Amino acid sequence: MIGSVRCEFHIHDAHSLKEKRAVLQRMLTRLKQKYNVAAGEMDFQDVWQRTMIEVVTVASSQAKAEKELQRAIKFLDSCPEWERLETNFEWL
Predict the structure, then answer these.
(1) By CB atoms within 10 Å of each CB, which of 13, 17, 71, 72 scores lowest?
(2) Contact 56, 4 (CB under 8 A)
(3) pLDDT one-digit tens code per residue, 21-49
């Protein structure tokens, strides 16, 4: 089972693309190190206070994939520098 989640975030204190990418790269690196997921920025690359991150995992069942994605979302939500606006799951 392949599980995917797209999360849109608003980065409160980013005043440039450089500041946005610093926050984004730090969180994506930690996310990939801690969890069995692949992740990357999928939209809003040229907008300095918004980002769309997609996180993908592969597991033997939908329940296991969903658990791993929920753990990843919880980790992303722990960052005080941004706020999650929208979340969409997809299963393949």
Answers:
(1) 13
(2) yes
(3) 999 999 999 999 999 999 999 999 999 99
Question: What does the block give as tokens for 24?
Answer: 């984004």
| pLDDT tens, position by position, 38-79 | 999 999 999 999 999 999 999 999 999 999 999 999 999 999
In CATH, what is the architecture of 2-91? 2-Layer Sandwich (3.30)
Quote the crossing angle between the two packed helices 62-77 and 17-34, to the nearest 10°. 140
Q: How far apart are CA 89 and CA 92, in angstroms?
A: 10
Q: Which residues of 4-13 are buried (b: 16+ CB within 10 A; e: fewer)?
A: bbbbbbebee
